[in-house]
Amino acid sequence: MRTTIISLLIIFTMSACEKQNPFFEKWDNPYEVPPFDKITVAGYREAFMKGMKEQEAEIEAIVNNPETPSFQNTIVAFDASGLLLAQVAAVFFEQASANGTPDVLALESEITPLLTQHSDKIRMNPQLFEKINYVKEKVDYSTLTPEETTLLKQLHLDFVRNGAMLDETKGLRLKEINEKLSVLENQFSQNLLEETGSYRLVIDNEEDLAGLPENVIALAANRAEKAGMSGKWLFGLDNPSIMPFLFSSDKPELRKEIFTAYLNRCNNNNTFDNKEILKNIAVLRKEKANILGYKDFTAYVLEKRMAKNATNVYGLLNQVWTPAIEKANEELVEMRALIGEGRGLTNSDWRYYAEKVKAKKYDISDEMVRPYFKAENVRDGLFHTYQQLYGITFKELTDIPKPNKDAQAFVCIDRDGATELGILYLDLYARPGLKRGGAWCGTYREAYQNSEGQRVKPVTYITCNFTPPVGNEPALLTSDEVETLYHESGHAIHNLFRNVKYHLTSEVPYDFVEFPSQFMEHWAFEPQVLAYYAKHYKTGETIPKELVDKIQAASKQGQGFATTEYLAAAFLDMDYHLDSVPENINVLEFEENTLKNRGLIPQIPPRYRSTYFQHVFSNSYAAGYYCYIWSEVLDCDAFEAFVESGDIFNRTIAEKYRKNILEPGGIYPADEMYVNFRGRQPQIDALLRKRGFLRVKS
Questions:
Q1: How do residues 239-286 score in pLDDT, each as one tens digit?
Q2: What angle do CA 38, 44, 45 make, to 5 degrees?
Q3: 488 annotated active-site
Q4: pTM summary value
Q5: What is the DSSP letter of 619?
Q6: Residue 427: strand pairing partners
Q7: What residue ranges define each of the domains in the chain, with the CATH number in brackets?
Q8: What b/e string do you get for 184-214 counting C-beta neighbours within 10 Å, with b at 16 or more?
Q9: Which end of the chain is less packed: N or C, by CB atoms within 10 Å?
């Protein structure tokens, strides 16, 4: 009797806990967004565990179904499995990136290998693959829609690429590799978060603030105050702090100090050093590719990309590299002429003197335009741009849960004024030590059709690390931050417009996924757009035409630096994943040789050095950082369609772009979608012109 009572108490306690866990009940709020304020770390963990168990049961139901395997009972059933797990993962991993408290990061370390094990167990289930393979071989494709055909073929390929056809010995080794990689990649990311957040440059002499703008000084004072260092100024390695310092500080020794710390993140031979982790990741990825039958990891990755193979990737990188290096050398000559003889120029000086050259040549600087880039105005200008292009509007929501106190929420309403396309969250400002660096866009819920055939509204978010407002002063964005917001909004609009039936047909190739985001950058500084949002935050005055003209004239200045630092990182990524990489790789020597052999100017480091190259060693851009330049060929060529029409808001072209690029997800091959939009293959000339590497069309 006592055992029965205890058992009943346990069951009751578990049931009560489940009822209190928001992931186990319908989200009873407008738009059914995550109830962020009710989710606990323990709740995340519990939901992960239950989500994995639920999907295991769903997979077992497919495997044990006595009926002949069919598209519905196997492929559709698989696509519909794991919804709880997908839901909790979507919310948790964004919170880990944007608000990584110690308990959240601890759970991330615990749960990541478990998720890898769970995925491998499914993808290497021989009975499940046998059923998927049966459907692929026996189905009458004439009865399937294009989306259904894509779902079936991509699912089959996904299983093959994840080891479904391996023998037991190789399968076990692949599982070991995947688990090790998941741990190492997570550790790489967490080390970077720690190293970035822990560095402090403390200034206690006001003279050492020479050259810094008032808002940068105010932000540094505010940070120092919060850190218990009243009367001092505190700078860190997050972009809103370090980048203005490098551009503006008149103190070369301090620029050198902070930039050296920036370049040596996770390369300090301490607990957070990433060199050995990186080496192990590269070796394991190579072995994984070999086990699966690929020459190297680049061949494995590029099989599903537009680029197809490494030869095509290197071909594009080299085609842009040559004019970029020439342009960078021209910029170096300009800077040396400015500073005169006898003064050397180091990597910590480049941004500072590049800004001086731009100011001298064009009489313009970021500090001249920032007063016109109040964050709220830029946001409104962005929404106006979308209204002009597609007829959509964004309405702010104040009555739904938000992921943090800084976030804003909006509902996106279609051109008919009634249809709600989805929800957009904006989380724009830096939180040093909690939020990982950079900017990104993702979804708490993707668009798909439910079992009743209704489109489920997506919930997407944009997360940035912009300079926050300080005191009574609003947030004034830099030109780079304005462009970043337009970039990430392109991802968001892709998420909001996507109109697919199945979860697995949402995915597009990584060298296509940056196309919609980079495409939107073209509108950020167009005179018509600036006239709408660029209002002086104090006077309300619209940005003067003379200043707009200067922005346009200076737009190609610095492209040598920007392009070569990006391409250097892209080369570095590709080289790490070739079959020629030795197992005993010395990370620092490899990096130096890779860049020196290609003629990189010593004063220009790669955008990401190896030990903090998070895109590649803890995110999904491995052998794929080239994607940005590949996509830029597409976005520049696509924007030229608007330019050629004489109207950058040409609604007919915008609708064609929406229909062929944004709505289909991954239903059709990416190159086919592009041709359907543009009427031809993309051409590289528009990219080269944009960066100032070709003569502009007359």
A1: 999 999 999 999 999 999 999 999 999 999 999 999 999 999 999 999
A2: 145
A3: yes
A4: 0.93
A5: S
A6: 463
A7: 2-165 (1.10.1370.40), 199-263 (no CATH), 275-364+559-625 (1.10.1370.10), 371-553+628-690 (1.10.1370.40)
A8: bbbbbbbbbbbbbbebbbebeeeebbeebbe
A9: C
